[in-house]
Design goal:
With 213 residues, the chain is mostly beta strands. 0% of the residues lie in helices and 31% in strands. It folds into two domains: 8-45, no CATH class; 49-212, no CATH class.
Length: 213
């Protein structure tokens, strides 16, 4: 006995557009169409790696050796760790600091040595010498190793020494000028700390180092 298989359905090509986040997760798509089409849609996207805090005018010498001097903190909004070795931070006039184990840190112990930024965590990048960020206002841009912009922030400057520019909340919030908190949760003032915290440690550069009950 012989069986013959016949095609009973026509294969049709469908077209659609997907929107992906920085981790290649689908965050939006159009309805499939059987012919070519043009569409416009908006997706609210939060980059996985973002600028989180900019310490542009430290107390004393802006060109001080880390942990003194200028620094920029990054935050990882994603669910996976990312090695940022080779990523770049650029100012408005084109000066660039390339992230490496010699100038970045994720735990303050010691002050350099890491380029990996963990999920929901921070990486601080020391600008080192010479001072790069303009105290009277500047634009800071985060670039991938291939110079693709991932995040940018313009600050007005002109504030007292020791003032930082930071997101509140970390990773996604609006930019404000709180206490400098490298590799720590951003807080506006000591009043924003948990009520159970009785005192907090500030180093010689007015940076928040630790919290104590």
């Amino acid at each position: 006995m012989t069986y013959t298989a016949y095609a009973t359905a026509e294969v049709t090509t469908a077209y659609f557009i997907e929107a992906l986040d920085a981790s290649d997760q689908v965050i939006g798509y159009t309805e499939p169409q059987t012919t070519g089409f043009t569409c416009t849609f908006t997706v609210n996207r939060t980059n996985q790696i973002v600028l989180n805090e900019i310490f542009y005018d430290p107390i004393g010498d802006d060109s001080g050796t880390n942990p003194a001097g200028e620094w920029v903190e990054l935050y990882n909004n994603g669910t996976t760790s990312v090695d940022l070795n080779g990523w770049k931070i650029r100012d408005a006039v084109g000066n660039i600091v390339t992230i490496s184990s010699a100038n970045s840190d994720n735990d303050l112990n010691p002050y350099t040595g890491e380029t990996v930024i963990y999920s929901s965590n921070w990486l601080v990048v020391y600008m080192q010498t010479p001072a790069m960020l303009d105290n009277t206002g500047d634009t800071v841009t985060l670039l991938t190793p291939t110079n693709e912009p991932r995040d940018s922030h313009t600050y007005a400057g002109g504030k007292a020494e020791g003032t930082t520019e930071a997101r509140n909340v970390d990773g996604t919030g609006f930019w404000v000028d709180p206490l400098p908190t490298p590799v720590r949760l951003n807080v506006l003032t000591s009043n924003d700390l948990n009520p159970s915290i009785r005192h907090w440690d500030i180093d010689s550069n007015h940076m928040l180092l630790g919290l104590h009950a």
